[in-house]
Amino acid sequence: MAMEQMMPSGEMKERLQDAAKRLEPMLEQVSEFIVRTRDVHKIYLMGKVEVHALRGVNLDIKRGEYISIMGPSGSGKSTLFNMIGGLDKPTSGSVYINEVDLAQLDAYELAWLRCRTIGYIFQTFNLIPVMTALENVMLPMIFAGVPEDERRERGMELLKRVGLAERWNHKPFELSGGQQQRVAIARALANDPAIILADEPTGNLDLKTGKEIIELLKELNQEKGVTIISATHDLKMIDVSDRVIWIRDGQIARIEDRSKIRVEAALEVEEALMEGELPNIP
Amino acid sequence: MTRAGGKMTVFGLTREEIRKQIQLPWSEAFRISWRYVTIRLGRSLITASTIFLSVAFLMAVSTMILAAKATGSITEDDPAYRATVARYFWSVILGFMICATGIVSALLMSVTERFREIGTMKCLGALDEFIVRMFLIEASLMGLLGSVVGAFVGALLMLIWAGVREGFSLWAKIPWGFKSATGEWGFLTYFLASILAGVVLSVISAIVPAYRAAKLQAADALRTEI
What we know:
A: 10 strands, globular, B: three-stranded antiparallel sheet
C-alpha cells in the first residue's frame, strides 16, 4: 500500500527506472577499484624530528590488477604498503578498501579485514616456527572460524597448488627459502582474499627461486583474479606487472602501464632499426 | 560504509556480525599455546622451574607444619605457633616474589623474541585479546606443570626428612585428607592450595608481558631490519 502511494504516476516510475539504469554502470565503476588512496600523508616523529614519509599519495588500484610498487629504500614505499594493509593509519587523507574508509574501522573490523580480505606475504616469510606447513596455512582459517575438517582439506589443496603437498608435515626450518615462501603464499590465500600484499617477496631469495615465486604469483593472479600489490626492488617483477608505480620522496613519481612499457620498448626497437643498429633485446 | 535497515554495515556485514566472525574459541587458543609450551619444552621448563622451586618450598613448609602437629610438638593453641608459622610463610612469600620477577623477565624475553610471530598473527587476523589469551594460557600451563611437580617434590622431601628424624610411624598420624580430625587443613588442602598459588602467581606475572605482546604493532612483522 505504502509503496503504491509513494509511486505517483507511471511516468515518474519510468523516469526512476531510467535513472537507476544510468546509475548502474557508475556503481560498477565505483566498485571496480579495490584500493583507493586519497591524498594520503604520513608524518612520523623520530625523536624530535618530523619525517614526512608520504606527501599526498593518490592511487587507484583495480580489482584483479598486478601492481608493483617500486622505489629506493626510504622512499615511503613500505609506509604506503602498510597503509593499504590497514597496518598503519595515515596522518591525513584516506585509504579505501572495497570503498570502505579504513579510518572508520574499529579493532575488530580491522582484524576481520586482515583475516579475510587481505593476504600478506613477507620478505622474511614469517612462518610460525612451531607449526608445520599445513598448520601455518590453516592458521588464518582458525581466525576466520573455519571448521577443522574444512581447514585441513582446504589447507592441503592450497599446499598442492603451490607444489608442496608432500611436505605438509615439515616445520619451516626443514624447508628451503623458496619452499617457505610457497607455504607463505598458500597461507596468504587461505581465506580467499581479494588482495595479496607482498612486501619484497623475492628479497631473500636467489634469482631462480625468485623468478619461480613471481611466476606463481602471476598464475594465482590470473586464475583466482586476486589483486596483487607488491612492494619490490626486483626488476623481474616489471615483466608480470600490469602497472608499475614508482615512489620517490613520499610521492608517486610516475605510473607505468605494462602496455605502455611494451609500446615504448617497441618504439625503441623501431628507432634502432631505422638507424640501422641492431636492437639490444634482453 | 553504508547504512542498511538502519544498521551500519561494513563489507556488507553489520558490526555485530563481524564481531561474531572474528571471535576465537578458547579451545583453539589453548591448542596453539600448548604447542608453544611443548615445542619449546626446554625454555618452558626453565620458566616452570622457578615456580617449581617456590611451590616446593611452600609445600615443604606446609608439610613440616603438618608433621610437627602430628608429633604433637606444636599445636594451634600454642602462642609460639602463630609466630613460627608467620615467619615461615613470610619467607615463602619472599620466594614467590623473587619467582614472579623471574617469570616476568622470562616472558618479556619471550615477547621480544616472538615479536615477528606476534605481528604475523595480527596480520593474519588475530585480535589483541587472542594474543593476551595465548600468553596467559601459556603461563598457566607452565605454572601448573611447575606447581604440580613442585608440590609433589616439596612434600615428599619433607616427609622423608620428618620420617628420618621422628620415625616413619609419624606418617600414619598425618591427616592426608582435606581436613584433620580437629577440623584444621589436611595434607590434600595444602597440596591443592600450593598448586593454586603457583598457577595464580604465574598468571599474574604474565599479565604485563601479555599486554606488551598484544600492543605490538602488526606492521612490526614487516620490518626486516631486526
